[in-house]
Amino acid sequence: MPRRMRKKFLMIVVLLAVALVSNYLGFSRGFAKGLRHTNIWWVDQKSIYFDTHEILQKRQLKKHDCL
User: Fold this and answer.
1) At what angle are helices 3-50 and 52-61 packed, to 10 degrees?
2) pLDDT tens readout for residues 27-59
3) 29: CB partners within 8 A, 6+ apart
4) 3 vs 18, 30, 36, 57, CA distance in Å?
């Protein structure tokens, strides 16, 4: 293999490796951020659900039997 072709091949391999690593790291960061955001949303939903004052107000607005 001539020297120029070897150099071009090596450059392509390096660029491909950099692209794959940056893609993987970007996916990992995005996945972690999405997971954190989803967990925060889920905790908020559960805290709203288990807040008895909020539940009593909803039941009163729907005209269910409440104490």
Assistant:
1) 70
2) 888 888 888 887 777 777 776 666 677 777 778
3) none
4) 22, 40, 49, 78
